[in-house]
Design goal:
Layout: E1 6-9, H1 14-27, E2 31-38, H2 43-51, H3 57-78, E3 82-89, H4 93-104, E4 108-112, E5 129-132
Parallel strand pairs: 1-2, 1-4, 2-3, 4-5
């Protein structure tokens, strides 16, 4: 069983805000990592960056996601968690969560019921999953 921090999935939405509040209510003052996931650059991102150097969409998106993860960590700290932000770049949200859970040795993963849209919430092998609706 992993002994690392709680991994809190956060996207800046009202639902994401509720996930942080629920995690803090249940887990404070534990260590936590507030995660946001973004996709790797696509061909259009590379083409825009090649034609217009200041038009690097991926790096702008990555900077926005870093700011969002940092804001989520601030919110979590304000509610008693010892939190830091983290960004995962992955082909899917699920892959990003799995990658981050391994990286930080997450003891629990906290996410909203809508994290995966309309699809089922997958199990994350070896890690408890807390779903907040």
């Amino acid at each position: 069983m992993p002994h690392g921090p709680a991994l809190i999935c956060y996207d800046g939405s009202e639902a994401g805000h509720r996930v942080i509040l629920a995690a803090a209510a249940l887990l404070a003052p534990r260590a936590a990592v507030v995660l946001d996931v973004t996709q790797p650059p696509v061909a259009e991102d590379r083409e825009v960056a090649f034609v217009v150097p200041s038009g690097d969409n991926f790096h702008r998106r990555l900077a926005d996601v870093h700011r969002l993860a940092h804001r989520g960590a601030q919110l979590a700290r304000g509610h008693g968690l010892d939190a830091r932000g983290l960004v995962a770049v992955a082909g899917s949200i699920r892959a990003g969560i799995m990658q981050a859970a391994e990286e930080v040795d997450a003891s629990v993963i906290v996410m909203g019921s809508d994290t995966f849209g309309d699809g089922p919430t997958p199990a994350v092998p070896g890690r408890p999953l807390l779903i907040v609706s």
